[in-house]
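Duplicate of earlier report; HAD-IA family hydrolase input re-posted below.
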Amino acid sequence: MLQNYLFDFDGTLADSGTTTVDAIQVVLADYKFTQPSADEIRYYMGIPIETSFPIWTDHQADDKTLAAMYADFRQIYGELERVNIKLFAGIKDVLATLKADNKELFVVTSKASGAIKRSLKQLAIEQYFTGTIGSDQVDHYKPAPDGVLNIARQYQLNLDQCIMIGDAKYDLQMGNVAGVATCGCKWGAYDVASLEKEKPTYLIDYPQELLTLR
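Output:
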């Protein structure tokens, strides 16, 4: 029986529209790097900027430049997110129902820990979550299993009762390596076929289906 629900954030709980794409393109343009297309950016969404930005810069940016780009991205993203971000339809009701059923809810995200706490508060869903873990709280980023395993260790969770829920293949890969059940979410996915290739335990179309998982 599932007891612990570990959610990705962007594309799973929340729809931030073109926020990520816009912020990445602005920063790369500011630093005179070629702008990738929106589709190219979406392909890598789900992993931290510390992994994707070296790719966008073709590994030509030094550590000092990358650090400045990360800071600029987070500032621009935060400004855009305050305007653009919204919950996917039905998510809040699903979270409330799971919580009322005494399930433990967590967020495992590639966002920094401060950013995810800010986002949950802005969307008025922070009260549903027992804990969160951001990219600055793991030694290895998605798709490594650190996020799941750190949450499990911190809260003494039984892995057999955990499920990792996300819209990107990196979420499913992380869950698979960690040894927990996985659920691919089509409603926010850029590439559903990539989710199918990971052979998740569940692959669902709508948030309400989360209430049927066992």
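The domain at 19-84 is CATH 1.10.150 (DNA polymerase; domain 1).

Merging into the original ticket.
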